[in-house]
Fold these 4 entries.
Entry 1:
Amino acid sequence: MTVFEFEAELWLYPGKGGWHFVALPKDIAQQIKFLAESKKRGWGSEPVIARTGKTEWTTSIFPDKASGSFLLPVKAEVRRREKLAAGQAIRIALMLDRA
């Protein structure tokens, strides 16, 4: 299983809900698009297993037209456990979830 590791800024979506995201670097997004299964899921999402610090969670990444990349949502529970806030650069390990 390929593990993608990168550092990116955590940011708060300006709309409703208080969603926090990390945009994947474009080179990693291109690799994921290449490895992605041919069948598409809702909104072009890809299931992943993500880890920051000691916290691991399952989620999906979503394509983002504005950045040409994927967005990784970072759950409130993860942010609490790892003491993360918008504007921080965080280290992420990401694996495609093929289970």
Entry 2:
Amino acid sequence: MTLSEDLNFADQGEEFDSGASPYPVIFGISFTPQIIGAIAGVVGLAGALFIVLNFVMPAWDTYQQQQAKSGELQGQIDQKKATLKQIDQVKKDLADAKQQQIQVLGLFANEKTLDTLLLDLNRLIESGNAQVSPNAVKAKLQKFSPATSKAEPITDGSLGVAVNNKLKRISINVEFVGTYEQTQSILRNIERLQPLLIVRDYQSVLAPVQTTTQTGKAILQVGPPPLTTSFQLQALMPLTPEDLAALAPKEPPKK
């Protein structure tokens, strides 16, 4: 064997060395870049799944619970706001009802208006006499007398059963003399008076014509003949707390 042949062993060793894998081998598996990339992807996916299951999902469940709780609280707030609006509306309705009650009570008579009723009625009757001639018939109040000494509760159903034990009235007998036109004007003016008044038992007849004065002097009257008008004027008033207490049924004495 020559020296050149010995040198060929070195060349053959290089050929053997060149056949070895340049990538790490574990358990007979060569970890090429593709395999390493696949393993890294699987590890990343597993890590992402671990994070989702252990961190994201609990946080999402907590968020859902808080959102439901927030919606429930918002519903309670909205309900309370609606209740407050209803309370404000009830207060407004109550104030309107009290104002209407005051206005309605103002339509009824009271002790003050009854004290001036005679003066008001006499003023209404005399108000048209300034425009008539001296020889014309002049309206005159002839009678104003209370038919009852005090106001009495209405219990007879004459104004309807619903009014019983809620109002009281005082009746006044009225009589005046005047022409037909004067009588119409006086009755219209009575309707305009402040207290609520009811005219009952109305009657008008021709009045006797006075032809002479007390000294016997003849009187020449001009114009239409006078009428004597009589009626009962009823003034209505609401019952006071004292009146209601008097009408309340008495409890039997305890044994």
Entry 3:
Amino acid sequence: MWAELLCGLVIYKLLKRFFYDDDTFDLETSKSDSIFSVADRIQKVYGGKVFLGLRIPDADTSSRQNIDIVLVTKREAVVISVKDFPGSVTIDKYGSWIVTEKNKTEKFTDPVVEVKRQVGVLEGYLEQRGVALPDEYLSGKVILTNPKSSSIHSINFPSEVISFDQWVKLKPEQKSMLSSWIKDAFCGGKKEMQDAIHQQLHFILGSAPMWDRLELKENKNLLGEFLEFKGKPADIQSLRNIKRSKVSRFIIQKSSMFGLARSTIQLLYSARDYRNEGDSVSDWKEITVRSSTEVLFQPHNSSKVSKFKLSSITSMSLSA
């Protein structure tokens, strides 16, 4: 009996490696998932529009500032930094954050200082693009999404920090009747912005530099940089037009099986239209390639290049 179980386990691992020879199964703890989860919940509860994975040019450092989320409403815009600290959090006398998990302790730079820096970079970028924001319209918040980060020390968190205990109290039914801490965190009694400025802000953030977005099956999302396709020469030749200068998004429509030797994927894409935000769906083109064709993708918070078979992908959005 044990021999049969062991044999079955070996066969399962071999089949898993054969059919799923990519990094889809390594994403359970991806920070990208936390960012998408926070963005989805914030938009459902609070309304407005969210922009994810921005890479805003920083004139002072000649580099790009990574911003997890920007929530935009007519009352305000909030830069949100998502922190998934895997342990209880304390703040030392120097302002550093000490995260303790079991017997392991790790020190982090104050995320409130980081998010204030992001607010300044974003404000400068918007000014360069002709948007004059009202006073105090743009602010920053840090959201702690890991239940392990909840501790008795949360009372010492700065007002810019939304602790996990506060985060779990935010429910969709509160949209029209926000709790007091949400009002303090996001509303603050601010006046609504003029429609013209609001629309301009949407367009600029929608066209700002950002990470590429990979949407995988089982509702997994990943932010990072698309590098290239890998596969048979004929398939790579068919995919030659899918590059960020020409295409903003492609989707996997369906797959077909031609015996055990080969299965194919139908991929739809449309030409990038720089005149409008996003892409036009009026002229989708179709490509059929082997489902074993792979996408090489560099997650934004990892030094490792990951590979994914097209059969595990739902869609991919490419930044300009």
Entry 4:
Amino acid sequence: MAIFGKLAYDAGVSPGALLLVRFSLAAVLLGMVLLVRPGLRHAGARTVGAAGRAPMRRGRVLAVAVGLGAVGYATQASLFFSALQRMDASLLALILYTYPVMVTVVAVALGRDRLSPARGAALVAASAGTLLVLLGAGGVSFHPVGALLAFASAVTYTVYILVADTVVHRLAPAVLSVLVLTGAAGTLGVRALLTGGVDLGFGPSGWFWLACIAVVSTVVAMLTFFAGLKRTGPSTAAILSTFEPVVTAALATLVLGESLTPVQLLGGVLVLSSVAVLQLRRTRRQGPAPERDRPVVTAGVGS
């Protein structure tokens, strides 16, 4: 998505137009998928609370799902693409991917998980890796405000994940995704109206990259992730998702000509390794995909 975003900016697309078109088009497309395949409306949904959670009224579940998009996803995406205007896609991806570590820390603070010595060491290594990424900026297009926006995006996504964890098993994944996308599109549509609208006068290349973001990076990403989740379980899915910034960095080098310094590469390795260790230790301790262990959210709706 970061690569498509850079290419869309080069084609004259503004961040406001990118966000509004992305979420609106993705919501419509995924809604059409639900119409064509009605079985997806109930696949994976549960009517009772999981892992000891109290049951939640249907209306409240729907409100939380829409709110996740209207507040959480819209804010996170706005921060992400604002940061993308100011910094390289590869560096942005590495900063954003501090969120799995933050999720672990907050989950421990809330009593949803425990912090073992090995997990604490992994968190220290991840923090050191993030610091290396920032300090080793060197010749890449590092921008302090961009880095702050990227980190704020990660923090927002952390909150989004922890809230989503309360409803992710109460709705079918496709339904939850449509509600989140619709909520985000609604917020961005209202913002566009209040600020005088967005410029949609860019050329065909801009629309092409927007279509790529909506189809490849949103709809296809969500549907294929959930299909893979069904076959691999949440822990494996979460571990695989930590390779996203690696793919972004590689594509940024090939497509955009960006490069990371050796210090930043070392920091990125520390961050990704720490996240993988956290997930692997959880898998070994708890066994195969227990219901209360749901790292899926870290790579699902908000990807």
